[in-house]
Design a protein that fits this description.
By secondary structure, the chain is an all-alpha fold. The protein has helices at residues 3-8, 11-34, 41-66.
Length: 67
Amino acid sequence: MKPSEIREKKDSELNSKLQDFRKELFNLRFQHATGQLGNTQRMATVKRNIARILTILRERKLEQANE
């Protein structure tokens, strides 16, 4: 997901996406540990998406605190 796509979504949608990405990361880690993971780059992509969502949620929280 691109940051511009993330910024267009509401907080509730982002929290839902965050949960989905965390579940996916758990499953990818499990597959990696058992040797079943074919695309290891997907783990990095999911981690990056989680970080982007958390960053944007934090930015919004700080903006609300400053107002």
